[in-house]
Specification:
With about 300 residues, this protein is of the alpha/beta class. About 40% of the residues lie in helices and about 15% in strands. The chain is elongated and about 60 Å long.
């Protein structure tokens, strides 16, 4: 039992409080996906996100309470919907962003207009850029945002859980028969992904091969003839469009396709697979389950 005097106890409490403040005010830093190191004098208390996936990662890293602005379509978690809007990912409202007085801006390297992001930096704002292409990039983004926001422990726990789940899904699919897959992300015109895209990693985790992995653009345009030539075991659509439904109906007109004959037309939730967040693991789990159902109907799949 402590026999300290009341004065000593008060002094000790003040010392501990001062130490906690010193830790909170310590400089922080993280390297972004372009190789730039972003340094802050203290963890960010006011953060603006310029992409829905970054808004989601901000909350996942335990720093949602520090968010003061976000772009349109930042709809997950529910709390993100109440954030002030600063334009959309491709058209930013620079005046609104500056008015929010952020000490950190999270930018999307592959989507935000480069000139507008550079303008924010010229105005003195600190910008951390995200360009996620892999599972490792998602985990790394969680950790980096956690460091910059001072929520490192929560971010680390979330990153480890995400990595563990993906590893378990890979292990479960490792011994299953491989499948060839054509993955569609849009229909006007038809678009797919190449082997460098995050979605190809999802397919790989499920024991599947992207038939368009070798194309040069990250999101190539294709036609019906290209799909016919590849003749995949399954066609997977991540399309959601009011005028075209899930994007799979047009393919039912081509019964010569192996995927059509085998009933291997699969639809997935694009919010979980197309957004580079830790919900990607949910999307991979659903994709693997649907591809397993394809295997059960076609045990001789390639």
């Amino acid at each position: 039992m402590c026999r300290c005097s009341a004065a000593a106890k008060a002094w000790l409490a003040a010392l501990l409080a001062a130490a906690a403040c010193a830790v909170a005010a310590s400089p922080v830093g993280a390297v972004d996906d372009t190789g730039r190191r972003v340094r802050l004098d203290a963890p960010a208390a006011r953060i603006v996100s310029l992409s829905p996936h970054l808004t989601e990662l901000l909350f996942a890293a335990g720093a949602g309470g520090r968010a003061v602005g976000a772009v349109d379509w930042s709809d997950f978690p529910v709390a993100a919907r109440a954030l002030p809007r600063v334009g959309d990912a491709t058209r930013l409202d620079l005046e609104r962003i500056v008015a929010l007085r952020p000490d950190l801006v999270l930018a999307w390297q592959g989507g935000n207009p480069a000139g507008q992001v550079e303008r924010l930096e010229a105005l003195g704002l600190r910008v951390w850029r995200s360009d996620p292409r892999t599972v490792a990039d998602i985990a790394g983004a969680l950790r980096a945002i956690g460091r910059l926001a001072g929520t490192g422990a929560a971010a680390e726990a979330r990153a480890v859980a995400f990595e563990s789940r993906i590893a378990a899904l890979r292990a479960a699919s490792a011994a299953r028969p491989p499948l060839s897959v054509a993955y569609l992300i849009w229909h006007r015109p038809w678009m797919t992904v190449n082997g460098s895209h995050l979605i190809s990693e999802a397919l790989s985790a499920c024991g599947a091969r992207n038939v368009f992995a070798g194309l040069a653009p990250l999101t190539p345009t294709i036609d019906v003839e290209a799909v016919m030539r590849a003749d995949p075991d399954a066609i997977v659509s991540g399309i959601v469009d009011g005028g075209a439904g899930d994007g799979l109906d047009p393919w039912r007109r081509w019964p010569a396709l192996r995927a059509v004959r085998q009933g291997a037309l699969v639809h997935v939730d694009p919010d979980r697979l197309h957004r580079a967040t830790d919900r990607f693991a949910d999307g991979v789990a659903d994709l693997c389950a649907q591809l397993d159902a394809v295997r059960s109907r076609a045990p001789a799949a390639r």
